[in-house]
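Technical appendix A lists one of the benchmark inputs used to test multi-chain prediction within the project. The record comprises three sequence entries:
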Amino acid sequence: MKKKLGEIASFLGGELVGDAQVMIENIRGIDEAAEGDLTFISNPKYLKSIETTNASAILVPPGRTRVDKNLIIVDDPYVAFGKVLDLFYPEDHNPPETRGDTFIEDGAIVSKDAKIFPGVYIGQGAHIERGVILYPGVAIGRHVFIGEDSILYPNVTVYRRCIIGKRVILHAGVVVGGDGFGFARPGQDNVKIPQVGIVQIDDDVEVGANTTIDRGNPGKTWIQRGVKIDNLVQVAHNVVIGENSVIVSQVGIAGSCKLGKSVIIGGQAGLAGHITIGDHVMIGAQSGVHDDIPAHQVVSGSPHLPHRQWLRVEACVAQLPEMRKTVSSLLKRVAELEKK
Amino acid sequence: MKKKLGEIASFLGGELVGDAQVMIENIRGIDEAAEGDLTFISNPKYLKSIETTNASAILVPPGRTRVDKNLIIVDDPYVAFGKVLDLFYPEDHNPPETRGDTFIEDGAIVSKDAKIFPGVYIGQGAHIERGVILYPGVAIGRHVFIGEDSILYPNVTVYRRCIIGKRVILHAGVVVGGDGFGFARPGQDNVKIPQVGIVQIDDDVEVGANTTIDRGNPGKTWIQRGVKIDNLVQVAHNVVIGENSVIVSQVGIAGSCKLGKSVIIGGQAGLAGHITIGDHVMIGAQSGVHDDIPAHQVVSGSPHLPHRQWLRVEACVAQLPEMRKTVSSLLKRVAELEKK
Amino acid sequence: MKKKLGEIASFLGGELVGDAQVMIENIRGIDEAAEGDLTFISNPKYLKSIETTNASAILVPPGRTRVDKNLIIVDDPYVAFGKVLDLFYPEDHNPPETRGDTFIEDGAIVSKDAKIFPGVYIGQGAHIERGVILYPGVAIGRHVFIGEDSILYPNVTVYRRCIIGKRVILHAGVVVGGDGFGFARPGQDNVKIPQVGIVQIDDDVEVGANTTIDRGNPGKTWIQRGVKIDNLVQVAHNVVIGENSVIVSQVGIAGSCKLGKSVIIGGQAGLAGHITIGDHVMIGAQSGVHDDIPAHQVVSGSPHLPHRQWLRVEACVAQLPEMRKTVSSLLKRVAELEKK
């Protein structure tokens, strides 16, 4: 695709500074960009790259110092970058015309405007709305509901009776609704407790590859509107994740945790069961959270501490061998003083 | 489903205190329960909820103080809760009658009383016993054995020659028998060592979604009877997990570890290779275990420490900045004293 | 299979010490080995087992003390062990003759010498070279390239336009090319940035079960020649992993990290985004790496420290309660001295 920079500026509703006639053929990152490329700058850390990039034009935020480059000034360059990526590289989710077989049980309701690839299984009583895309190897259990325009990539499994909202994206290998890890007398005879609840995923949620979200028991595990979950995350039974929260890769959230809105959890962090996390809490990567956290707090470490305290503690930890030497020398000096 | 409370009490062999005629329509957790619901209380922490719940009846352990509610007294309310869940919400694992195709190689032996969903692949020489349920997308390698009444959920993979016992449950996306991570001259030219052993999973094991269990080489990786493994766990080549052990989500167990019976490992813990763990050991969440642990010990932390020592250590860690200040002030005071 | 020890020695180009006529029927580990078995010893730790093993013969490195056993002396016994495993237990990757259906879109180019199992989906414009083996449930997106002799085990997903080299092994459930975790205004409205780059996997790479490798955006995520990645690893968008690096299970590598050659990362370690790791760096298990590491360094801990410093620090950490007591007693003793 080729587009004039002026057209792109109009498309974005941005202010053009420079040559409206320059042709843009590709969208690339600022360091790899070459002639014919549009790039963007969002983080002030990379401002210097504006001088050195070979890109033909740059998306920039308002208030930049003047440079001798073609610029489009937009409120949020990263969001604008997303829009031009969509424009230049539209995705094609259409299945092949009629080749191959799908396995749709009698009594499943599948919109004629859903796109079902071969090799998909849809159980009895399932309800697939219009615009839904089911890639090969997707298995939809009985009485599952999938809302409009959701995309399920290959080999996703949704267990019976779970509810998926609109515009939800489940990446390859995601498992929704597996049994929670519930056993009576653990370590003795591990009596299995039937897991009879569901998972409810609200609109505009995205879930990364091979992430697992267990069904509630009883009741539901609930991923609220706009939540984004990365790859290989574990969400246990009866967890609630509040609107617009962001959960980075390999996080583990144990049973019955309740997370507020706009919570952000860094990679590989773990939350013990039955914890309540307030709105806008930020939890650092690899943290171990063992207790409730009130709204707006920032925590780090395992066991977790307020982030600033954790920074001070870790600075001390790295200095411990020196502190030990100091304490040893103090012991001798005090003993010496005591002799006198 | 509707049942009278008296019927349920008989079914459970429990003692009814209250109105045998009250109708139960649903089973729910104590906080969400409403009229028509049966709930349970197991953890003494939640005893107060007995007063406030709207449930029509409650499963309680013996020796409870009297309350003005309908109660069924049972030895283990959580186990009883499991039984009534099974009663009220029986699961239907029947595949559709004849619709759709399976891919069964010649020379596979599949019991006519096994339930094979469409989209299942079964390799030559595999042996599928009666009562087995294979959901769509399950791939059974050559010469694999699956014992009676085991359930493999969608998109499970079992590699060649692995052995699965009776009443085993493998949740969606589980991989049994992938190659162990064995390379000669690591970091140089990484020569692959063929991985020729197997995985053996004994009766009554349950494995959570997207967990991976590598084949032994040579010999076997062995998950013994009654073991329960949560989601996204890594079990490396030649590991042995003893009977009734419980492994929580995202744990990693490196090659050739030998775990005794009734070991419990908390979420995200890691075990280095070639470690022996005694019976009834408990390992805390996020621990890093680098050495053998004798039977009945409780450990936490990374690197792990006896649990009580770890609690004392972590209390000190959080206080390190204060300790550093104290040591600095001591240095000054001692220098002052030395001057005199 | 049965082979004379003399034949095996010739096959390996090793020096036979002992009876060339002894028959070898199986290859086993040194502790389980019995009569008729060939075993090996590589780690000097296990030298004593030479005396006690029941194996009929042993692969040993040069310079061993004499024992009354049949030996084959080879430069690298572990590599030789791999070769005899291949000889005794060759793997059969042939699909069944014609049974079952595959889902190959028009416009896909599939070599007639590729082996495609039933239940495989191959998208339009994909290119599958000769010798490639695709197991059931593999989903190959549009315009994907898979080089000669690569093996994709069941339920692997490769998203659109990714490039896989020659002799690559992707174990069951691997996901290549899922969307990177890219959202503008995280925690506010989480605007999705389209992920339009690719994953490029070079020759001789092996990737463990259920590992996820996200596509770049823009540009590529790049796994270079000879890299070995274990199970359940997360590789984020635009990461580069240099030749022959070894990444152990459950490691997480955040976006845009650049790893040099022959880097070794222990299990469950995590790397923050945009970090550069030099050649031959070793990162300990469960480390948390938050900053660049120059070539040839060894680091451990979270936050990471040089390995030797970390060892000293951890020794102090375990002694903290004692140190705290010492400091308290010093406080009293100094106060006492000050009184005088």
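Residues 231 and 323 of chain B are 41 Å apart (CA to CA). Residues 314-339 of chain B form one domain. Comparable benchmark entries are summarised in Table A2.
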